[in-house]
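#struct-queue
[09:14] JT: dropping the first one here, sequence first, then the structure tokens:
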Amino acid sequence: KMFEAMKENVELTFEQKSKLSFLHYPFYEEYLALIEDSAAFKESTKFSKQLALEFGIEVFDFSRLICEPINFSNQDHLNLQGASLFLDHLENCFEQGCKEETCIDRQKKSY
């Protein structure tokens, strides 16, 4: 049911001639390691890839972008500091072009 609704939303977006991108948000490393083999995560990933192919949607995978636990309020939610890092990265990404990066918080040591 959820996937049907998502597809309908994508179709409506394209009917309105709007640009659409899919973003995979950052996850805490250990949490991602636990869930990425789960059936639900695999099904969701497969469905979003199918939609991306079908509609020509650009996909940005930031799931491994932020790694330090200090930037998360729990396993899959960034805290204010982590959200600020992520938003700064998104702004640069869309202005200068996105490239796949991991653990930017370890590289910049901004905390």
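[09:21] JT: and here's the second one, same format:
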Amino acid sequence: TYTDANGCTDSSTSSLFVDDCSGIATMANISGVSIFPNPFTEQTNVLILAIYENSQFVLRDVFGREVRKVNIPIGSTRFLLKGEDLAKGIYFYELNKDGSKLFAGKLILQ
């Protein structure tokens, strides 16, 4: 609760949830997506560290425009991303499932 100099009072609450994580396996899955090599020149491997049904890999340019969308087939955890029709630069990727962003990161095309 806070009261300012004019006598106005307000309060706010927030909750913090901590999920216990134990072991190296749990920590290794925090990123969820591994891309190698990164930076890349012609093509790069995208490895999804778990199976997510109905998921999409979305690549955006620095202005947030969607430049590539890959629907991940059920049971698939790896695909090859080709940069042949993309300009050199920085891109941002996200792994989405049912409209929710699961993971995000940065990708560099040289």
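[09:30] RK: nice, looked through the second one.
[09:31] RK: Confidence is low (pLDDT under 50) at residues 14-29.
[09:31] JT: good to know. The longest strand covers residues 100-109.
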